[in-house]
Amino acid sequence: MRAISIKGVGSPDLLQVVDLPTPISSHNPGEQILIEVEMAGINFFDIYQRRGERPMNFPGILGVEGIGIILDSSIPLQNFKIGDRVGWAGGAKSYADFVTLSEDQLIPLPANIAPENLLPLLLQGLTAHFLATSSHVASSKTTALVTAASGGVGSILIQLLKRSGARVIPVTSTPIKVEKLQQLGFEHSCIYTEMKEQVKVLTKGLGVNVVYDSVGKDTFGQTIELVARRGDMVLYGAASGPVEPVNPLSLTRNSIYLSRPTLSDFIPTFAEKKERINDLVSAQLSGALVLTPLQLFTFEEAAKAHRLLESGMAGGKLAFTRG
């Protein structure tokens, strides 16, 4: 099979297309089910690993997300069958033609929805869903500030927050992106240099009920100052790098709740995966959630794809297709 391998920590130029033996299903943990990959998501977690900010064994294959067809299983399947299209959003070495997984890693997918419409609902969609419904339960009483609002998670999160009735302040990097967000109905959108004043005006100086920050180092010191009394500071990414250690005493200002949630803790069971995916699909079919078309790349374009995502200019979901 073909795969994208990387020999060590470094730049996108280290990503190479290689030929490897096709894996087989076995009784080893995480290797019981063989899946043919249709699409592999390209995510910032992959960049964290390439840059040495998350652990991985080198040489190795990147990619934690994908959609594919179950070809074989060494164990009886409880919730799936051979031939099912499934998704996954963790630990699969997805930049390859085939992967092996355990059943508890699989995400059930509706059979009548095309893969290109489902892939954004996996890592990005499920993350946005738990952020809007579990990390902070958004409602019509919520004012929420979202950084990287034009990105993969952010663009879905602001729509789910709007669906809940929340007032949303999307923050993005350029005036052009602000204009696009405003055209989509997010009238309070702004660039980073304007967010402090925007929050002050909209909340009469009280601050927002929740900040969702995926940028990390470059914004955390500013966004945490915008949280209202007893509000939530939800740090769920570090696109600009990890934040400096936080002194717990600093949270006594306004009794702020700081959290650093991760997706795996919010989809631990088949039932919760199914419930969240079905709600996302319902939002999509109803028009409450509009997805940006995928930007597709071949394996040979891996370095180009990583550079685009790392630049912050992607403006939507990136994925590899076989070809």
Question: How would you describe this protein?
Answer:
The protein has 9 helices and 16 strands. Helix 5 links the parallel strand 10 (167-172) and strand 11 (190-191). The chain has 2 domains: 2-109 and 293-321, Alpha-Beta Complex (Quinone Oxidoreductase, Chain A, domain 1), CATH 3.90.180; 124-264, NAD(P)-binding Rossmann-like Domain (Rossmann fold, 3-Layer(aba) Sandwich), CATH 3.40.50. The model has no long low-confidence stretch (mean pLDDT 95). Helices cover 26% and strands 24% of the residues. The chain is of the alpha/beta class and 323 residues long. The radius of gyration is 20 Å and the shape is globular. The chain has helices at residues 44-50, 115-118, 123-135, 152-163, 175-183, 195-203, 220-223, 270-286, 302-311, and strands spanning 2-6, 16-19, 33-42, 60-61, 65-73, 85-89, 98-101, 106-108, 143-146, 167-172, 190-191, 208-213, 227-235, 257-259, 295-297, 318-321. It starts with a strand and ends with a strand. The strands form 3 sheets. Strands 3, 5, 6, 7, 8, 15 and 16 form a 7-stranded mixed sheet that branches. Strands 11-10-9-12-13-14 form a 6-stranded parallel sheet. A 3-stranded antiparallel sheet has the order 2-1-4, with no helix packed on it.
